[in-house]
Design a protein that fits this description.
The structure is a single chain. With 334 residues, the chain is α/β, with parallel strands linked by helices. The protein folds into 2 domains: 152 residues, Medium-chain alcohol dehydrogenases, catalytic domain (Quinone Oxidoreductase, Chain A, domain 1); 154 residues, Rossmann fold (3-Layer(aba) Sandwich). The protein is 27% helix and 24% strand. It contains 10 helices and 15 strands. The strands form 3 sheets. Strands 3, 4, 5, 6, 7, 14 and 15 form a 7-stranded mixed sheet that branches. Strands 10-9-8-11-12-13 form a 6-stranded parallel sheet, sandwiched between helices. Helix 2 packs across helix 3, helix 2 crosses helix 9 and helix 5 crosses helix 6. The longest helix has 14 residues. The chain is globular, with a radius of gyration of 20 Å.
């Protein structure tokens, strides 16, 4: 029998401060019936990404995704199997209608997965931004010291490995817990880590990077970016790929992340700083996928992620991510 309903996650209310599981509801919705030009997909995995904090917080100026209002279903990158429609049944596709059992995206909004990566879930890795930033904006050179903020996150766990593969001699990162610091060093090749809550973050950073920093890949902002500028060498390149300091703050709604920058130091040391947007570098995605696939098959890189098993746990997934209870990407497995 054809089902009449399926499950999805809705925003119940706009959070007061950081989101909690009570701000989301696992709801039953009418089973999607694809219209002309649409395809019916049974989702198998979807990504929990911190940008949702901004979308549910209502501060979405300059964000290429629509805001989420109470009652709306969440969305985001997902992998699913074609069930019906113009595409071949059984094929896996990547699309943006996650947070639900079934989806009916337009064919044009689906990307057929062709085996370029050895495991389909790897298509949810957040490595393209790190790769683009480290090859286009803050190009890593042989022998560089690279500093990655938020190193245990979805982007950071990939960024450190990518920097090493691109020729970095020393890779250091910041994270929030000793356990994550140990994993970064033992599993992902980081040379040293600095705990973000440590007293005198800047002094600790200078100790683990005694010869200064040549490249910064910043996913956080705030005082960590301030410290990175103070520790940067002449000619250092800083790429901004995230703003977690604002997205994870209970005092903010995810649409701002102020930081104090020593512009005198930027000037006198010839330091460059720029924000990375994938839309500005449309060639990066395909290039990254080729290199990522080759590195995965050679065992040169890992894709660490924390599984969230079952739609029943999905309403807890974003609060758990924001609370720092994941390592690498957070992915709901259906």
């Amino acid at each position: 029998m054809n089902p009449t309903t399926h499950r999805l996650v809705r925003l119940t209310r706009r959070p007061a401060g950081l989101p909690t599981p009570d701000d989301f509801t696992l709801a039953q919705a009418p089973f999607p019936r694809p219209e002309r030009g649409q395809v019916l997909v049974r989702n198998t995995h979807f990504l929990v990404f911190p940008g949702l904090r901004t979308l549910i917080g209502g501060e979405t100026r300059d964000v290429p995704l629509p805001p989420l209002h109470p009652g709306d279903a969440l969305f985001g990158p997902a992998i699913g199997e074609v069930v019906d429609g113009p595409l071949e049944k059984g094929r896996l596709v990547l699309h943006l209608q996650g947070w639900r059992d079934y989806a009916a995206p337009a064919v044009a909004e689906c990307r057929l997965l062709d085996g370029a990566l050895p495991a389909p879930v790897a298509h949810l890795a957040q490595g393209a931004a790190a790769y683009g930033a480290l090859t286009r904006l803050a190009e890593v050179r042989q022998g560089d010291t690279v500093f990655v903020t938020g190193a245990a996150g979805a982007v950071g766990t990939m960024a450190g490995q990518i920097a090493r593969l691109l020729g970095a001699a020393r890779v250091v990162g910041s994270t929030g817990s000793p356990d994550k610091a140990r994993r970064l060093e033992r599993e992902l090749g980081y040379d040293a880590t600095v705990l973000r809550a440590a007293a005198s973050f800047e002094e600790r950073l200078a100790r683990v990077a005694p010869d200064g920093i040549d490249v910064v890949l910043d996913t956080v902002g705030g005082e960590q970016l301030t410290a990175a500028v103070h520790t940067a060498n002449r000619g250092a390149r800083i790429a901004l790929v995230g703003a977690l300091d604002g997205q994870l703050s209970p005092e903010r709604a995810g649409g701002s992340a102020p930081a104090v920058l020593d512009t005198y130091r930027l000037l006198t040391r010839g330091i460059t700083i720029a924000g990375y947007s994938g839309a500005d570098h449309p060639d990066v995605e395909a290039e990254w996928e080729v290199r990522f696939g080759a590195w995965l098959r050679a065992g040169a890189i890992r894709f660490p992620y924390t599984p969230v098993r079952g739609m029943e746990r999905a309403p807890e997934a974003l609060p758990e991510l924001i609370a720092g209870r994941s390592f690498g990407a957070a992915i709901v497995e259906l």
